[in-house]
Amino acid sequence: MSAVPIVTGGAGFIGSALVRALLAGGAPRVTVIDNFSSGKHENLVEVADRVDVHEVDIRDFEAIAPLFTAGAMVYHLAAIPSVPRSIADPVPSHEVNIDGTFNVLRAAREAGAKRVVYAASSSAYGDTEVLPKLESMRPAPLSPYAAQKLMGEYYCSVFSSCFSLETVALRFFNVFGPRQDPNSPYSGVLSIFMKCVLAGTAPTLFGDGEQSRDFTYVEDVAGLVIKAATAEGVSGMVFNAGNGNRYTLNETWKLICAIHGVEIAPNYGPPRAGDVRDSQADVTAAVRCLGHAPRFTFEEGLRRTLAWYAESG
Ligand SMILES: NC(=O)c1ccc[n+]([C@@H]2O[C@H](COP(=O)([O-])OP(=O)(O)OC[C@H]3O[C@@H](n4cnc5c(N)ncnc54)[C@H](O)[C@@H]3O)[C@@H](O)[C@H]2O)c1
Question: Which CATH number fits domain 6-173+218-244+280-294: 3.60.40.10, 3.40.50.740, 3.90.220.20, 3.40.50.720?
Answer without folding.
Answer: 3.40.50.720
